[in-house]
Amino acid sequence: MLVARLKHLVTWLAGDPRQPVLTPVEQTPVRLDRAERRQLDGIRRFGTVGSLLMACGGLGAGASPVINPLPGVPMLGLFPRIPTVAIASAFTGMAMLVLAWLWLGRFTWPGRPRLLSRAQMDRTLVMWTVPLVLVPPMFSQDVYSYLAQSWAVDKGLDPYTSGAAAGLGPDDVLAQNVPTIWRDTPSPYGPLFLTLGRLVTSISGTNVVIGVLLERVLMLIGLGLIVWALPRLARRFGVPPISAIWLGAANPLVIFHLVVGVHNEALGIGLMLAGFVIALHRLPAVEPGDPVPPLGRHELLGLLAGAVVITLGAGIKIPALVALGFLGVMIARRWGGTFRQLVWAGAALVGIAGLVTAGITVASGLGWGWTGTLNGGTIVLSWLSPVTLVGLAASGAGIALQLGNHTNAIVGTIRFLGWLVFAGGSALVLWRSFKGRYSAMYGMGLVLVLFVVFGPVVQPWYVLWPIIPLATAVTNPRFRLWATVICALVAIVTPPTGSTFDGRVFVLPQSAVAAIVLTAILLLLVRGRLPAREPRGKDAEVRPVTAEPVG
């Protein structure tokens, strides 16, 4: 019942998704009319005010460092001393941004006769993002782990044999900021990311503020790659580019967790998508049932260059390697489409990925220790992970029945079964893409869905791994509605503090209630100035979508 009501709410805010949609070839969207442009101005301002409230709230509610420089700063130092007000401000800003994003979705939904222009979308994204560039990290403390591990590398230590506290010492300023659970854990990040981090700490040293801002610059570069790649891939796979940017870049999860939260998913996803764009640049799109043209020399070089860039993305975050499997499918289909050619294409890409990875590892001087620490995040029993949740439920049932506490064994077994399902499902999706039933981008998105659902650990920002690629490949209204619901729900329920706020958990519910009241008042103030329901009749009549190209 709750989910049904939430879907109804999102449908009311973002428009009716059940109208048929068009491919970009069939659809000729026109500019927004005067009334819609006025509504767009209201949406922009509403979201920008939300960003400003988040920025102010983040000064007192964010995941501040242990030695917080803000209390001694005039005016800005006020926010850390009023945590309830700060968190309420951040929650209100989050709600306003999510609502503004949903309203903006009315002007970007595939099949709508009048769509937002690219310039209007870019200005909106800039207005919502710029106020949050200089705020402290929020929602997570992972950036402090990035800095401490990079500082250890800069000092010549091996981050893959000991944690930050053991390597740098418990009195080190950067080590003190690492969350307790990760202080004695070797780095789970590859040598490419730590090499980039070494460049950051060579400039910032132990200055946490400068270090966080430089790490955020890296993530903004990743966001730039995502924004650059989304419309190019969307045109390729039959989605209106503006619709892909709305779901894949203007998404509150992107702003909250990749920009404000400073997560390296921004670079990993950005390089993965950029690699796909490079690989597909010279390849003609192929409709289902059409003959597949063979590869020429320039097309093959483009595919190889794309494979290199995707491998660089995997050097940041390992899930980016999924994209190589679907590049292999595309190569094999153009070699003739036999199973033998699929094996040869896969072997070639594995060889390229191996050479690039070996080159990065040798050039970094960090050795191969990273291969044994990639699963470091699995020590967290994340209730957001369905397989881990099942394991915890089974363990809790065993404890209730007085069968003993076997949590680690049960969760480990369920996670192993989850990996088996992921492997089998990925093989099936890869095979269907090879047979032309799925487009390459759609297949890649499905495999990343399996990775999130059956993986051992899920964090709120992990949802972006499948959502962003699928935003460029799917116009199905049901998918886009569910994706919108999931993104809005995950964005709004994640606290901005990155922790339980020093154990004072009562602060969070008080702040949430205050934010709900304030948001309701703001909605009353803007009532009548923002979009109403989509028009019915002639303006809503569009032709049904045709089959998507398989790439």
First and last CA, distance: 39 Å
Main sheet overview: none
Gross morphology: globular
- Percent helix range: 55-70%
Q: What structural class should be given to the helix and strand makeup?
A: mainly alpha
Total domain units? 2
Count of DSSP strands: 0
Radius of gyration over all CA atoms, rounded = 24 Å
Low-confidence stretches: 5-27, 535-551
Beta-strand proportion: under 5%
Number of helices: 21
Instruction: Give the SSE order as H and E letters.
Output: HHHHHHHHHHHHHHHHHHHHH
Mean pLDDT: 81
Enzyme class: transferase
Protein name: Alpha-1,6-mannosyltransferase
Family: Belongs to the MptA/B family.
Main location: membrane
Any overview of this molecule?
The chain is mainly alpha-helical. The protein folds into two domains: 2-141 and 211-380 and 457-534, no CATH class; 381-456, no CATH class. Helix content is 61%, strand content 0%. The protein has helices spanning 2-14, 34-61, 83-105, 118-129, 142-154, 164-168, 173-177, 191-204, 208-236, 241-248, 252-260, 265-280, 297-316, 322-335, 339-364, 386-400, 407-434, 440-454, 464-471, 477-493, 507-525.
